[in-house]
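Q: Start with the shorter request: fold the first protein.
A: Done. Sequence, then structure:
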Amino acid sequence: MPTPQGPTLRELAVQALSSTMRGYDLLAPKFDLTPYRTPDRVLDAVTSAVRPLGPFRRGLDVCCGTGAGVGVLRELCQERVTGVDFSAGMLGVARSAHAGAAGAPPVDWVRADARALPFAPVFDLALSFGAFGHFLPEERPLLFDQVFASLRPGGLFVFPVGAPPAVGSRPYWSLLGFDVAMRVRNALWRPPFVMYYRTFPLAGVVDDLVRTGFEVRLLPLEELGRRQDGSPRARLVVAARG
């Protein structure tokens, strides 16, 4: 739920009527006070699942936002971490939040579009949290190709994917309603604000990763529990560059 210190309804409305980049520049100072920040329990579950897959020297947080994933990488990587995002406002908040952490690897902050990453293949581990709704399905192959090109051979690209809500449930209708509202907004208003919850189906994502050249496996994030049918509430996608 929103907090009293978080953005007001007016601020959220201004953000929603801006471009994706400008919207996040505006939201950046209060982003971590919104429900949109990746919960700590998800960050902790991913950290626990990825740690045995290492060791890792250099890490990349793709679409780092205010740096939640950078915090994960600083626990997992030994030498250096990079956060990349297209929003100067979000990078500014991230830089302040992670300044001066003793004993952790240093961080480089890079402003760039994830569809045109400016990196050589130097990273052992890339991850991303909560950003894929900002990419249309037809953009996924380019995004995955850019991450692939930034990884060393054998490097891993990891991210959590939650199980879809049951058809007809309250979360199902909530996400569907949000996506419909965004499609109407983008049909009637320019510039577009790209954010959808239902455009990242696991099967299609795995197919795109494999076509890019990744070897993919799925690990249950057991710390996040299981549904009534016994299936995990969330899985970790582990895509390895061959």
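Q: Next, the second protein, separately.
A: Sequence, then structure:
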Amino acid sequence: MIEKLVLTGAGGRLGSYLREPLSKMAEELVSTDLVDDIGTLYAGETYVKADLANYDEVFAALEGADMVVHFGAIVDEAPFEELLGPNFVGAYNVWEAAYQHGAKRVVYASSIHAVGMHAKNECIDTEVAHRPDSFYGLAKCFAEDLGRMYWDKRGLESVHLRILSCAQVTSARALGSWLSYDDLIQLVTRAVDTPTVGFSVVYGVSNNDRSPVDNNKAAFLGYRPKDNAEQFADAILAKEPPADSTDPAQMCHGGPFSAVDLGESGLAQMNIVDDRKKN
């Protein structure tokens, strides 16, 4: 069992599903976010309010950490100036504080948006070149390169989870991109408990028949998703409008983020259900 884990973004939708399983993997789980309260704490869990853009607050929250599961960020496209603190500087603050405290590993919530402008008919693997679809995706590229540099120069391990779409299936795109919450938990668990990872990238996607990405080069992590979005296909496709091959949202891996102007919300074009876990 790990002595101390830190989870950033614990107040978010995905964080709400990770808190309980992570609390069972560590003697102490420190959950952090910007909200005042995240509800009832699990056994061994404490909550620390911390601003990712403030190095001193991040440094204090990570004291004694063996590993960091870094899910905190603005989770949408926005003007660069809004993303700079939490998404860019925040990533640096987490890696630097983790290194200074002697942590073993950072597990990072990266995103398909780091490679979102690749064409959808390309089944991309984990070594495909960065091709961000937004400032949000650019921040993911920055953190992936940051993680590689800290591994190469300082020996701090990291696993970068390129999550496709971890939300209820409400569109044809999600038939390929869906990551169920159960598979999310397995993905993070494998990223934490695999003995050695160096610098690694893995796609966060369930075992979908229509998955557009290839995880073969990350097989050593032991991530074997169980769920399949095909169960939703008939209902989703019955109400889907005709396909448009001129629409980047349909033709690129990044979906709506590939089509919006830089700085404009991608989530506003999506039907994301806020079904965060209540504890």
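Q: Describe the second briefly.
A: The mean pLDDT is 96. The CA atoms of residues 73 and 87 lie 5 Å apart.
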